[in-house]
Design goal:
Elements: H1 22-33, E1 36-37, H2 38-49, H3 57-69, E2 73-78, E3 81-86, H4 88-96, H5 98-108, H6 117-131, H7 137-160
Antiparallel strand pairs: 1-3, 2-3
Length: 161
């Protein structure tokens, strides 16, 4: 059995970090944020998953080739690198698999939503925590719930377009 974040002891078989299909899904999500080359993707995976997962060319490039063969990503040469971007088919596939991506997020603690929203959420949490002891908790919860409902409506409006 693997120990300590996936490292196996002598004679033990290392456990897989990603379950079946998850690496491809995570790569789609990262490429969906912005076009990237393989090394950037490996760096992002390391940043997202820390010491529990070490991205390697031996896993990333075959996964990218499979995504390209399925026409989920398009690769373009940019000097000596290939830059991958989401194809329209890939964007639809990613949208269809949001629930599976949410499961990966829940299991790993990683976040693949719009990168620009994370700092705003962190700032909101910090500001609310700083005054939480000074306000009516029930009223604050109602306000936060109203804000979440409003943001959810924004996503529904966007999907309806």
């Amino acid at each position: 059995m693997a120990r300590n974040g996936g490292e196996a002891w002598a004679g033990e078989r290392p456990r897989r970090f990603f379950r079946s299909g998850e690496l491809h899904l995570v790569l789609l999500a990262l490429i969906g944020r912005r076009p990237q080359h393989g090394y950037e993707l490996m760096s992002e995976l390391t940043a997202q998953f820390g010491p529990d997962y070490r991205a390697s060319p031996g896993s990333i490039y075959p996964a990218l080739a499979a995504l390209e063969a399925e026409q989920l990503v398009v690769a373009e040469d940019d000097g000596d690198r290939r830059v991958y971007r989401l194809s329209p088919v890939g964007a639809r596939a990613l949208e269809d698999r949001r629930a599976a991506l949410a499961e990966v997020e829940a299991r790993t603690g990683a976040r693949f939503g719009p990168a620009s929203l994370e700092p705003a959420l962190a700032q909101l949490a910090g500001r609310v925590r700083a005054v939480a002891h000074l306000v009516n908790g029930q009223e604050a919860e109602r306000i936060l719930d109203d804000a979440a409902n409003h943001i959810e409506r924004l996503s529904t409006d966007r999907r309806g377009r």
